[in-house]
Amino acid sequence: MTYFLQNFVNALQWGSFYALIALGYSMVYGVLLLFNFAHGDIFMVGSYIGFFVATGLVGLSAVGVITLPYWLILVLTILISMILTAFVGMLVERVGYRPLRDAPRASAAITGLMIGVILETLNLIMLGAERYKFPELLQTEIYELGGVSVTNKKIMIVFVSLLLMYLLNLFVMKTKWGMAMRAMAYDFAVVPLMGIPLNTIAALTFGLGSALAAAASILFGTAYPVMDPYMGVTIGWKAFVAAILGGRGSIVGAAVAGFILGFIEIFSASVFPSTYRDLIAYSIILFILVFRPHGLFGQEHTSKLRL
Amino acid sequence: MLLSVKNLEVSYGNIKALHGINFDIEEGEIVCIIGANGAGKSTTLRAISRVVPVGPDSSMTFMGQNLLDYQADKVVSKLGISHVPEGRRLFGNLTVKENLQLATFARKDREKIPSDLELVFSIFPRLEERITQMAGTLSGGEQQMLAVGRALMSGRKLMILDEPSMGLAPLLMLDMFEALKKINAEGTTILLVEQNARLALRFAQRGYVLETGEVVLSGPSDELANNPEVQKAYLGG
Ligand SMILES: Nc1ncnc2c1ncn2[C@@H]1O[C@H](COP(=O)(O)OP(=O)(O)OP(=O)(O)O)[C@@H](O)[C@H]1O
Ligand SMILES: [Mg+2]
Q1: Pocket perturbation via mutation, ligand 1, pick of B16, B37, B43, B46 by most ligand atoms within 8 A of CB
Q2: What is the residue range of B210's domain?
Q3: How many percent of chain B have pLDDT more than 70?
């Protein structure tokens, strides 16, 4: 039982990462009917932006320009990085995807992969091959709860992720911008007839997705601080799988499937040798998709592209 | 002149759908464009809404402004031209209320929104009763009401409608056209395209007959309705 609970906590943590990243894939797909294959690298960019923001704030605190407690630096790092990374995402949309709005979907997919490579390479050129380490903003504290060890970091990661998902849901369901995103996911071509600029909503969607990826990357950095230019690739693909599992374009699906993926991975690793983890985990997901090809929450409805 | 269209050409790839048509609309009028399947009726409306590109020699002037200077969303939010598309195209995943709200997304004259909403509900009381219902679950007639109501919320100068009678039972068609008359009486100019020529000519003051991308006839509705060619081709003899 304690063994189960221990895994449960770890699964929640990994599920949080996957869910936050998967949301970006799903929102963009829902609105623009394309997968942003640069999204994993946006996660990486978010991490480096977070690194510089955190390091800068720690430095300013050290020389006494500002005096901030570390927890506040962490909160500020998350917020500032989300904003800056949102702009990176909007830039990617503007430069990479907008010119291809009417092009075949395969072109957009290839563009995404190329933008990913460009982001990785730019990182290497600007920062070199040296590995950076995310600053320790939260001292690890371990709590023993009935034999299960829980760290303050894990609690923080899961809490912040759930909070962000709750806020995203509020935004999508309650604001006119969120309403426009839902409308665009349903019928792309009619949105301009409502006086709504498509490009603005597209940019907003990219911005939101990228901001969530940035938040994920900083939470990730508190638990796994070693950074490198390719850090977004594997986790990005896995989150993409979660987005597919949840159902293309489904926001709820992406969040739920992110956690499901976390659980499947962690529990596969707890039962089988850990080298088998991905083999087992992704076989299970393939198996689910055979029976639910539209994913867990996906609908057959596809947005119409023309009036 | 509210809208003046000159030499409007639209092509889809290599296929020319409109071969340089001309028409105009005076403020306050109800004007119809009738024509058979594939004549180019929807294309004409799409051109006004700026969702399809037009030929280099085409010009469209709305209230003295060059319509071609405006992007699709600005045609609605800045010029007040609303478009009820073919097949209604409601946002089925949004409620009736949300569909109506969304149409006001970019309106600058926000103080007028409540009175416009009242107008929509006074013309279509059914919509007020169904305010929290998902648009996708409305009946066909209610969906058409919402499509028109939504357009009214998005802009009040000119409403262009693509086959508002489509899929409605005969009595509902009449109700729908009566509703359009009320909207017109409240100050909105109306341009509608219809395959149901009889109905369209009954409600519109003037009409244009479109055949394979060209205007072949135009004039006051009663003249068109009495024209033997129109009778033969569009009014069943
Ligand atoms: N997206 C498109 N791509 C290619 N051709 C198109 C497209 N839309 C319309 N057309 C063609 O342009 C011509 C005019 O079409 P349009 O939809 O304007 O006709 P319509 O008068 O509205 O017909 P209907 O009464 O059937 O709605 C037709 O020949 C049609 O096949
Ligand atoms: Mg048509």
Answers
A1: B43
A2: 3-234
A3: 100
